[in-house]
Give the backbone structure.
Amino acid sequence: MIKKITDRISAVFTEDGFSSGNCVLVEDTVNLMIDSGAGRALKETRPERINILLNSHHHIDHMGGNDFFPAAVKMAHPLEIEFMQVPEKLSATDAWKELMDQDCILHAREINGRPNRLYQPWHIDEIMQPGQVIECGHTRIRVIHTPGHTAGHCSFHFPEENILFLADICLSKVGPWYGGSDSSVDDFIHSINAVREMKPEMVVTGHYTDILRENIDAILVEYRDRILKREGRILDYLKDTPSTIHELAGKRFIYPDHPNPFVVYWEKSMIMKHLERLMGLGEVTREEGNRFRTTVTASSI
């Protein structure tokens, strides 16, 4: 579904669930798309007429439709381009073998008898640099480096309209997500704070189901604070109960429901990010048998 924001800028909302993502369409002297993961909604954008396609980052739910834009110059941050050629990175499952005791269906070279697109090359024409301004005629887009979700994750600012497309600073009820090998809890927090300082008047994200126009700062603060609340729950539990990553995942500190193996994996991968951060701060140690414990127990407080 396409929803107009201004005469030239539209949000393209996916209707295909968590494996797809919202995009932004600019119709100007130069026609431009930001991301391509909107699934069936892409047809409404008439991809064949798009001149430039900007990829916010390397996950397949944001760039899975790149092949439908044959005439577009495709651009991405340099830190993302290498990961676009790694199937496990594209599917956000790069530590699956270490954390899960079953095979990942997305790692098969064939799915339903057809080649898995993740294993075929993804072409990027030009590097997209932080601070770069892309001119589309009346519309300008500034590239904002907002790492955390991935190392080269970018957001996009329309300065005249003060609109921000935040991609996977998603503001949805299940975010934030920082479970990749190149993800960073601290960078994510810093990026959210940087977005707050920009004071956008309108926000579109990759997974929020509407255009945000009100209470934007409060929504960003609540979203940011979820990260350290998750970490607090993990730390409090470890004070009394040294645990493995699998035992911690069973406590569902990140997601209250685990409807499929992917959510279990993402629970584990994000808990690991918190444990790595806490070990770096000297608040958690790893014991024999891969059990994690706090350096201060509840009984010693």
